[in-house]
Amino acid sequence: MARPLGLGLALALLLAMSATVLPLASSADDYARCEGAVKGWADSVGEGDNGGDKLNLKDLLFFLHIPRTGGRTYFHCFLKKLYTNAQECPRSYDKLRFDPSHPDCTLVVSHDDYSLTSKLPRERTSVVTILRNPVDRVFSTYEFSVEVAARFLVHPNLTSAKTMTSRVLTKSRAVSTLDIWPWKYLVPWMREDLFARRDARGNDSVPSSKKINAYDVEDMVMPLHQYINDPVAHEIIHNGATFQITGLTNNSYFNGAHEVRHCVRKHPDLGRFVLQVAKNRLDRMLYVGLTEDHEESARLFAHMVGAQVLSQSGALKLDVQEDQPSGTDSHSSMLDPEDEETNEHME
Ligand SMILES: *[C@@H]1O[C@H](CO)[C@@H](O)[C@H](O)[C@H]1NC(C)=O
Ligand SMILES: *[C@@H]1O[C@H](CO)[C@@H](O)[C@H](O)[C@H]1NC(C)=O
Ligand SMILES: *[C@@H]1O[C@H](CO)[C@@H](O)[C@H](O)[C@H]1NC(C)=O
């Protein structure tokens, strides 16, 4: 079994996500056109081989990082110890797209979706990912969106927040959460909302004295129910993990992603083709962890991935690495987009 953890649970997660697409009115013509587009896509991405040697780590490891699944922990506690900085491929977040000409890199960690593999030597690439119960993943995405956006409230107004931030970023040439999918959409959305609510409150607002539910503080922040019912959340969050695994996010390297994505949102029953592709993809991965089963997932990661990296590269590396400063380097493909410290420049 390539997948160390319950196939059933993994599929349940995908099913739960695919059930959230929005139903919209449609004509029969449009349905037929969409069905053709989605089926055509599904056929074209169907992998020919049966993934026979999927258990063997190939030359390149692509850690497909689904936001809010705990991937950072794997990055810091495993991958940073298993790979040297030089082995890590240059950062590949959106605008700073993956550079396949980089000669010796063997590790890619990215929020970029599966379509990134079209830029990689596919036969020599192993893919790993971590899935999380979609409800928890959505809560966590909301919380992180609010947290990052709220850091901008130190500025007197939205204009000033935007100006100051872009000035600092241009100067430091740092990677900001605002450069990285999906935060580049979710954070500005929430930021605008936070400022609007602050402006509406005026200067002398006193915090409401009634007992508050942190997910429904309307005078301060967009309530959770409003956030999760927005079409942006449907596309980027609810269906985000499935779209990442199938390479259909709106950050995709595949030109047809837009059409397929919109077709399945318009005609939810076509989502079954996307789901099938997602299942096949997971099936061919070297490893799929589950956030909920952290301990078992971490142990299996060590066995399935860690042990192979070590045996392929010589176990001595661990000792060598020990002597190096473990701080974030500017070259890293994972500049901790979800790490508080790296967002300090935005404060
Ligand atoms: C925003 O704040 C800056 C800095 O205090 C100020 O110069 C500017 O006039 C403000 N802009 C608006 C639209 O209030
Ligand atoms: C808030 O305070 C500032 C200065 O402290 C003042 O210029 C502004 O008019 C006040 N706004 C409101 C809505 O009371
Ligand atoms: C991706 O989705 C967001 C949210 O719906 C949207 O604002 C943005 O324009 C989209 N980007 C692209 C490249 O389609």
From TrEMBL:
Bias kind Polar residues: ranges: 323-333
Principal cellular location given in the protein's record: membrane
Superkingdom in the source lineage: Eukaryota
Key words of the record: Glycoprotein, Membrane, Signal, Transferase, Transmembrane, Transmembrane helix
Localization (cell): Membrane
Cleaved signal peptide residues: 1-27
Membrane topology, from the record: Single-pass membrane protein
Any one Gene Ontology cellular component term annotated for this protein: membrane
GO molecular-function terms, A-Z: heparan sulfate 6-sulfotransferase activity
Compositionally biased region (Acidic residues): 336-347
Keyword Metal-binding: no
Region of interest (Disordered), ranges: 319-347
Membrane-spanning parts: none
UniProt key word Transferase: yes
Protein name: Sulfotransferase
Gene source species: Triticum turgidum subsp. durum
